[in-house]
Amino acid sequence: VLMKVCHPNMNVPFFKISAKNKKLISRSKAFHLHQVYIDIYNSQIILQKNHHVLINGRQ
């Protein structure tokens, strides 16, 4: 989880931003960001590589 609302009395909607890493090369220690997940207003937005965006599982 990269960011989320922690205090229930804050005057903002609940949201959570998380990400999934993927290893670049099997012997390398380098990773790249594979997907970013944004949960807000009972919806999930997934930002994928190559500029693909899914909203609730649909493009």
Short description:
With 59 residues, the chain is mainly β.
- Helical region count? 0
How many domains, in number, for the residues? Answer: 1
Order of helices and strands: EEEEE
N-to-C span: 23 Å
Q: Which structural category do the helix and sheet elements fall into? A: mainly beta
General form:
flat
How large a portion of the residues is in β-strands, by DSSP E? over 45%
Low-confidence stretches: none
Mean pLDDT: 84
How can the largest sheet be summarized? 5 strands, antiparallel
Helix content: under 10%
How many extended strands?
5
Question: What does this protein structure show overall?
Answer:
- By secondary structure, the chain is mostly beta strands.
- It has one domain.
- It is about 0% helix and about 50% strand.
- The protein has no helices and five strands.
- The chain has strands at about 5, 15-25, 30-40, 45-50, 55.
- A five-stranded antiparallel β-sheet has the order 1-2-3-4-5, with no helix packed on it.
- The protein starts with a strand and ends with a strand.
- The mean pLDDT is about 85.
- This is Zonadhesin.
- It comes from Cheirogaleus medius (Fat-tailed dwarf lemur).
- InterPro entries: VWF_type-D (IPR001846).
- It holds the Pfam family VWD.
Label this structure with key terms:
mainly beta, 59 residues, flat, VWF_type-D, Zonadhesin
Please render the helix and strand layout as text:
Blueprint: E1 3-4, E2 15-23, E3 31-40, E4 43-48, E5 53-55
